[in-house]
Amino acid sequence: MKIYIIKRILYAIPVIFGVMIITFALFFFLTTPRAIATQILGEKAKKEVIDSWIHLKGLDKPYFFNAKAHGFKKLTDTVFVHHMWSLLTFQFGNSFQDDKPITGKIIARAGPSLFITVPIFILGLFFSIFFSLVLAFFRSTYIDKYGTLLCVLSMAIVIMIYIISFQWFFGIILKLVPVSGWIDGLDRIRFIMLPVFIGVIASLGGGIRFYRTIMIEETNKDYVRTARAKGLGESAVLFKHILKNAMIPILTNAVMAIPFLFMGALLTENFFGIPGLGSFTVESLFNNDFPSIKAIIYIGAILYQVGLIITDISYAMVDPRIVFE
């Protein structure tokens, strides 16, 4: 197992490096430092002010080879090396927008995002598995058919429809929860109830259909027929046998979603005014805040690779037949 984990980590390193290089190419080949400075400082900013800002941020250096430097600095005193080194050492620097440390912003905004995404993940996973077992139990009946149809219809509705309609109904008409905003302390529960409810509802359609397909596939296998032949009830077959043997695809889908919990919910956070990483990402994109965006992409790439490794390890935990050599 240890050797396998080491191999998986070594496999992840080139992927992360590739993400770092692509991020650099997107921001420096599709735009220019002067364009970034003009957007941040304004169209009416003087040329001297723009040049001073570019120099202050170190964006006036050559991308790959600095002919004006001496010795080894010809290769190291470049924008590309600075970009790579800042990511490898997790020194993300300051934001272009307000010149505040990006690390502090990420730490501060991770909390609100996790308060939204973790309940959505846990409740969505629980209800998706539960209702998929119900549909599998009543397979080929009207409950299964209409339940599957309802899942397909819910998948066709974009999350913005849920957000706008639920804000109007629960926030404005019934006045049960705030329409938007955020507050620290226990009162934040009032502000996260509606976003969490919307997130769970929006995830159920695809989740139930996915897990239902897995459950139905398991019901047609020999061990299920053997369990039924021994006289086990349908509920015992579903919960003790089918669910246990369906854990590998469930784990694959669930564990791979864990890294994205950190990244927040883009639309939900923006519509509900939640100061999380999702809204921070959107703000950084609109403001062309390259240091903030590259930090979020880099952390997301690392978490995604960690999720892949945890997924592979979890296979051996639920299925003793899997042995990593």
What keywords describe this structure?
mainly alpha; single chain; 325 residues; MetI-like fold; 0% strand; globular
Explain what the structure shows.
The protein has 16 helices and no strands. It has two domains: 2-88, no CATH class; 103-318, MetI-like fold, CATH 1.10.3720.10. It is 73% helix and 0% strand. The model has no long low-confidence stretch (mean pLDDT 82). The chain is globular. The longest helix has 36 residues, at 102-137.
Total number of β-strand segments? 0
- The CATH class name of the largest domain reads Mainly Alpha
CATH superfamily of the largest domain: MetI-like
User: Helicity, in percent?
Assistant: over 70%
What summary fits the major beta sheet?
A: none
**CATH fold title of the largest domain:** MetI-like fold
Structural class: mainly alpha
Order of helices and strands: HHHHHHHHHHHHHHHH
Give unreliable regions as ranges. none
**SS field, number of helical segments:** 16
| Overall mean confidence score, pLDDT | 82
Please report the distance between the alpha carbons of the first and last residues: 7 Å
CATH architecture of the largest domain: Orthogonal Bundle
